[in-house]
C-alpha cells in the first residue's frame, strides 16, 4: 500500500515536470526501488529540472547528485566570469546558476555596500508619507506605530519606534493580540487609536488589504500610513500613503523588501528630508536583518546589503 502511495506521488511529479522525465514505470518496481528511494527521486526530479532522464541516470540519481547543465550561452558567460574575476570555473558556474552574469553583478554580490541602497523616494507615495509624518510632528499629534505580531511585524515596530522616539515623544506602539485580534489591522486596534486620541497610525508589515478597516479609521478621524510588502488587491486602502513595492504603479527597483525593510525605507526618507545623518540609521539594521531572515525574503539586491550590514 505504502509503495503504491509513493508510486502515485511519483507519477504526479512526472506530470508536474512537464514530461521532462522519461522513465519506464514498470521497471521502477522491478528494480526493487523502495519507498524511501522513490521519495528521494521525486524530490530530486522536482528540483533539478534535468531532462530527459534515462534509466541509467535515474539509477545514478538515487546514489548521487546530478547537477543541471548550463546552456551554451551560459557556458560562455561562465568562462568570461572565471577569467574576469580570476575565480575557479566551479565558482563561476555557481554564480551563473544564481543569475549573476556580469562583473558588476558579481561585485555587488560579494561586496554589498550601503551606498548602493536605493533612493527611498523612488517608492510610490513616499513623499506623501513623509509629509504626513512631518505634519503630525509639527502639530504634536499622537502617533501610533502599529505592526503585526510576527517577527517581521515586531522588528518593524521596534525599528520605527526606536528611531522616531529620538526626535519625537508623542509616540506609542501597538501590537494586536494574535488570538483575540488576529492578523493585520484590527477593529480593536483602530478603536484603541481613536479612543486615545491618536491622529496618525503607521501600519507595518500589514494593512495592504485593509480597505474597510482604514475607511472605518478615517471615519473616526484617524489617518493611516501603510508600510507593507504583501501583494495588494485591485483596490488599495484609502490611506494617506500606501508604501508597497508590489503595487502595480510603484516603480521601486527592488520588489522583495521585508515589511521591516519598508519601515526602514520610510525612516531613511524621513532622515533625508530632515537632514538626519544616515549613520543614525545603521544601528537599526540588525532588526532589518532579523526580519529578512525570518520572513524568508530572498537575500538578493537591497536585502543582501541590509542583511550583511545588519
Ligand atoms: Mn512580513
Summarize the structure.
The chain is α/β, with parallel strands linked by helices and 310 residues long.
What is the topology?
Elements: H1 2-16, H2 25-30, H3 35-48, H4 55-63, H5 72-85, H6 89-97, H7 103-110, H8 126-138, E1 142-147, H9 151-164, E2 171-174, H10 187-195, E3 198-204, H11 211-219, E4 223-227, E5 241-243, H12 259-273, H13 285-294, H14 301-309
Parallel strand pairs: 1-2, 1-3, 3-4, 4-5
The structure holds manganese (II) ion.
Structural class: alpha/beta
The name of the CATH topology of the largest domain is inorganic pyrophosphatase (n-terminal core)
> How many strands appear in the DSSP assignment?
5
Give the bound compounds. manganese (II) ion
Could you characterize what this model shows?
This protein has 310 residues and is an alpha/beta fold. The chain folds into 3 domains: 2-63, no CATH class; 72-111; 120-309, inorganic pyrophosphatase (n-terminal core), CATH 3.90.1640.30. The chain has 14 helices and 5 strands. The protein has helices at 2-16, 25-30, 35-48, 55-63, 72-85, 89-97, 103-110, 126-138, 151-164, 187-195, 211-219, 259-273, 285-294, 301-309; strands at 142-147, 171-174, 198-204, 223-227, 241-243. Helix 9 links the parallel strand 1 (142-147) and strand 2 (171-174). Helix 9 packs antiparallel against helix 13 (285-294), helix 12 runs antiparallel to helix 13 and helix 13 crosses helix 14. The relative contact order is 0.10. Residues 1-6 and 15-30 have low confidence and may be disordered.
Amino acid at each position: 500500500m505504502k509503495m503504491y502511495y509513493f508510486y502515485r506521488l511519483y507519477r504526479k511529479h512526472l506530470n508536474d515536470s512537464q514530461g521532462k522525465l522519461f522513465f519506464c514505470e514498470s521497471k521502477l518496481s522491478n528494480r526493487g526501488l523502495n519507498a524511501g528511494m522513490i521519495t528521494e527521486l521525486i524530490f530530486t526530479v522536482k528540483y533539478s529540472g534535468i531532462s530527459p532522464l534515462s534509466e541509467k541516470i535515474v539509477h545514478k540519481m538515487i546514489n548521487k547528485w546530478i547537477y543541471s547543465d548550463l546552456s551554451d550561452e551560459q557556458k560562455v558567460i561562465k568562462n568570461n566570469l572565471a577569467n574576469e574575476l580570476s575565480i575557479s570555473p566551479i565558482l563561476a558556474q555557481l554564480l551563473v546558476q544564481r543569475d549573476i552574469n556580469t562583473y558588476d553583478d558579481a561585485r555587488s554580490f560579494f561586496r554589498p555596500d550601503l551606498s548602493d541602497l536605493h533612493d527611498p523616494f523612488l517608492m510610490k507615495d513616499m513623499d506623501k508619507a513623509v509629509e504626513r509624518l512631518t505634519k503630525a510632528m509639527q502639530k504634536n499629534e499622537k502617533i501610533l506605530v502599529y505592526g503585526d505580531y510576527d517577527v517581521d511585524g515586531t522588528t518593524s515596530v521596534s525599528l520605527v519606534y526606536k528611531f522616531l522616539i529620538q526626535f519625537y515623544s508623542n509616540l506609542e506602539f501597538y501590537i494586536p493580540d494574535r488570538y483575540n485580534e488576529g492578523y493585520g489591522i484590527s477593529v480593536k486596534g483602530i478603536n484603541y487609536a481613536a479612543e486615545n486620541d491618536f491622529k496618525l497610525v503607521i501600519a507595518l508589515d500589514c494593512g495592504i488589504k485593509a480597505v474597510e478597516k482604514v475607511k472605518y479609521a478615517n471615519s473616526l478621524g484617524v489617518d493611516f500610513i501603510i508600510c507593507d510588502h504583501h501583494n495588494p488587491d485591485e483596490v488599495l486602502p484609502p490611506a494617506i500613503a500606501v508604501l508597497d513595492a508590489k503595487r502595480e504603479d510603484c516603480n521601486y527597483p527592488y520588489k522583495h523588501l521585508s515589511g521591516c525593510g519598508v519601515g526602514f525605507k520610510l525612516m531613511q526618507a524621513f532622515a533625508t528630508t530632515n537632514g538626519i545623518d544616515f549613520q543614525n540609521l545603521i544601528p537599526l539594521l540588525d532588526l532589518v536583518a532579523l526580519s529578512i531572515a525570518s520572513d524568508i525574503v530572498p537575500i538578493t539586491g537591497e536585502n543582501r546589503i541590509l542583511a550583511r550590514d545588519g
